[in-house]
Amino acid sequence: MDKRQFLKTSLGVAAGSMLPFGVGARTAQAGASTPQPDWSLGWKSINTDTLPPVALSLDGELPEALTGSLYRNGPALLERAGLRYRHWFDGDGMIQHYRIDGQRVTHEARFVQTQKYLEEQAAGRFLYSAAGTNIPDGEASANNDTGNVANISLLPWNSELLALWEGGSAYRIDPTTLQTLGRKDWRDDLRHMPFSAHPLRERDGTLWNFGSAPYAGRNGKLFVYKITPRDGMVAAQPVTLPMAGYIHSFAMTEKFLVFYFGPHRFTPGADTFVDSFRWAGSEASRVLLVDKNDLTSHRWFEAPAGFVFHCAHAYDEGRDVVAQMCLYPNADVMQTGMVELMAGTRGAHYPDYARARFAELRLDVQGGACRSTTTDLLMEFPGIDARFDDRSTSVFGVGHSDAENATFSDSLVSVNPQSGATSRFAFDPGHIVEEPLFVAAADNRKTSGWLVGTFLDLPAKQSGVYVFDADNLAAGPVAMARMQRSVPLGFHGCFVGAGQNT
Amino acid sequence: MNASIRITVALLASALFAASAQAATLTITVTEIEQTEGFVMIALFDSAAAYENGGEAIRGLRVAVEGAEVTTEVEGLEPGDYAIKLYHDANGNGTMDMNPVGIPLERYGFSGNKGRFGAPPFAKAAFTVAEAADNETLIKLR
User: Fold this and answer.
1) Which of A388, A313, A405 has the alpha carbon at shortest distance from A350?
2) Residue A269: closest CA among chain B residues belongs to which residue?
3) Do the chains contact at B105 and A192, CB–CB below 8 Å?
4) What ipTM was estimated for this complex?
5) I want to staple B87 with a disulfide (CB 3.0 to 4.6 A). Which of A203, A304, B36, B96 is the partner?
């Protein structure tokens, strides 16, 4: 009997056979009458430049082959001089670095030293208006990078990490020291361009991304970027849009790039960038296909109104393009949900309007028809095993259980779109689960790979790392590592295997 | 911020011959220059209509950059309200370079140093030039 099995058996009697070690140990105290834990810990500001290295305590056994670095980015400095940001988008980006060596996990963190962060550190107060917060008597913004907080995601690129925002440039980060190396200017004439936090990579290393400028011209503009490791930015194709909307990510097939624009219209004149968006639910969503071999070739489709932060997987199938995404019924999650979370006023269940469901759009490329199928599966922060490019690959994400007092993401979920089979594991009450990253196993005999991510245990005030067998989610974590401190909830990250050249 | 800040050769020429018996002189100081090269291109407006709608400046000045600040004087102004748009033409190509979104790639400024994004309205950028006074305006590049 291995240690994991022993732990499950010894703790599992009272707690239920599906509950793993560690997690289950607390279940005995956490009954249905447990009051809602204080969610505000997830949005508690960090006001020191770094978090020094600490070792995490470990439950279970880390897979020996799982060695490398889990990097996470997210808004972490949320208030200065008595002023607290309104919106979750606003905080300065801090990079969390969890080193995993097969036996131990350590953690340290450092803020991205953006121009904004450095100036505001020196001033001791917020100087610049943020995406969702207007700073009274703030300084003027010179360009898109004045308020750049580099807080959404991280991309390994040419032996560095890029700390990604979406409104402006990425910042270059040293993956070992987490020191900021400067702004990433792909080309002199493309400085300060919007650059999304969700670039997608081809197998040959080519990187695709986009920049969304809903404020540019009458209907806003989208720029499609093609980047190669050798030549850098080789294309920045402008796309004329039928309406100025919000877009956060895209999807990619062998042939096409897929962009989903919900009817979330940019209407200039509001106090903040976020407040400039108005939900127009009586209008259709618009879906754009861009031909990867001819970036000037654009096909537009109409879909029922909906709102998307994150696309999952997409593939070509016969005459169709199928794109998977986490679909909200409307944009309330962005307009009010994220404000409530920051303010700490969301005390009960996360409201239904803010729940995304796994959905598929099927686009008839020649005929122009679009069919939308939304499942019942609650899912956000989707990820895939990118080694497969058809419908056979499972999609992983965070989900929401039906447990009383459940936090808004208390579960890991997966769905195989081909079979429709779903799998889930619900963490104990009080846990908030963050984005799972699929890490392929070098040796495929035991598992296709691991799901690695972070969690926040609200009652224990601890942050940590979970590791699951991607093929057996329901069995619970194979390892959980915790530290005696918490960090604010973040958005996205990346895993860089030991010896892997970023 | 738009093409109205561009200063034409014609305007520069008209500025040279504009001196008259009018009494008021304006001293313009531009600070926070980061690159010691090129020119500060200054457009002086005397009306909201011209300032806000891309109209012609009444004076255009091209001042060589030799340090972190430049100071220049405009003579022969009629007393009244004025506003300034300027940019640092660091590469000396006579144009304020922009990226494809229309965001300036060269630094710029407005009198009054107000405005969260782009040019503030004339009312916020305006300052008064009076006869027989030390009329000064300080503009920070952003």
Assistant:
1) A405
2) B117
3) yes
4) 0.85
5) B96
Closest among A466, A366, A328 to A410, alpha carbons compared: A466
| d(C-alpha A275, C-alpha B79), whole Å | 42
What tens-digit pLDDT sequence spans chain A (502 residues)? 344 443 333 232 222 333 333 343 333 334 445 566 788 999 999 999 999 999 999 999 999 989 999 999 999 999 999 999 999 999 999 999 999 998 999 999 999 999 999 999 999 999 999 999 999 989 999 999 999 999 999 999 999 999 999 999 999 999 999 999 999 999 999 999 999 999 999 999 999 999 999 999 889 999 999 999 999 999 999 999 999 999 999 999 999 999 999 999 999 989 999 999 999 999 999 999 999 999 999 999 999 999 999 999 999 999 999 999 999 999 999 999 899 889 987 655 566 667 899 999 999 999 999 999 999 999 999 999 888 777 888 999 999 887 776 777 999 999 999 999 999 999 998 999 999 999 998 766 677 899 999 999 999 999 999 999 999 999 999 999 999 999 999 999 999 999 775 5
| Residues B13, B9: Cα–Cα separation, whole Å | 6
What pTM value is reported for the model? 0.90
- Dihedral sign computed on CA atoms, order A176, A178, A182, A183: positive
Residue of A143, A222, A239 to mutate for B, most B C-beta atoms under 10 A = A143
Amino acid identity, position A477? P
B88 shares contact with chain A (CB less than 8 Å)? no
With an 8 Å Cβ cutoff, are A140 and B102 in contact? Answer: no
| Minimal CA separation from A138 to chain B, in Å | 7
Could B101 and A211 be called an inter-chain contact, meaning their C-beta atoms sit closer than 8 Å?
Answer: yes
Contact flag B105-A188 (C-beta cutoff 8 Å): yes
Q: Is B34 on the interface with A (CB under 8 A)?
A: no
User: Taking CB atoms and an 8 Å limit, are A190 and B100 in contact across chains?
Assistant: yes
